[in-house]
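Q: I'm writing a short explainer about Molecular chaperone DnaJ for a general audience and would like to include a description of its predicted shape. Could you first generate the structure from this sequence?
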Amino acid sequence: MCPAAAPLPTFCQQLLLLLQQQPAGLSEYQLLQQLRSQADNPLPSGELSDPLCLFRCHFLLFNGLYQLRDLLLERGQAQLLISPLCVQLAPWTPGSQALASHDPLRSYYLDLQHLEDTGSDDVERLLASFWTRLHGNEDRQAALELFELHTAEDLSLGAITRRYRQLVSQHHPDRGGSHERLQTINLAMEVLRRHYQ
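A: Of course. Here's the predicted structure. Afterward I'll give you a sentence or two in plain language.
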């Protein structure tokens, strides 16, 4: 006779119950709001508008989700799909445990030392880095539009370089083009080279 599985830790039980009540899944924000409305949750009680509090809530939530996912997979009960946009229970399938163990975020969130080592300055740097990358994506998109590249096959460095040469030839001042337009094309190429090297 198989021994009975140990009961789930309290936080994992809370998460499982909320997810079972929402078969279509919940966003991270919805899950945080529902958990924080319960009296016996392990999340910090500060304002989510405070970046450090938000980071700590996020980290503890994902720590609990990865623990729950591991326990559900060990027991062959379900898969837990984890993403900030949708956290959802799915049926267990053979091989899902092997796939889950290769998730690079799993080891980060299961190591509580990362939570302890992250202070306000670290969170501010993470946020600044995010906005820099987001702004960089806007620059990339503008450069692609300037080059009139929109389809997936156009997004190789070789295709971008070919298009760059066409535009330089077409807009070079020696061929009646504008010096300002050529500078814009060169700047766009630098942006795209950074993204596609």
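A: For your explainer, you could say: The mean pLDDT is 83.
Q: Perfect, that's easy to follow.
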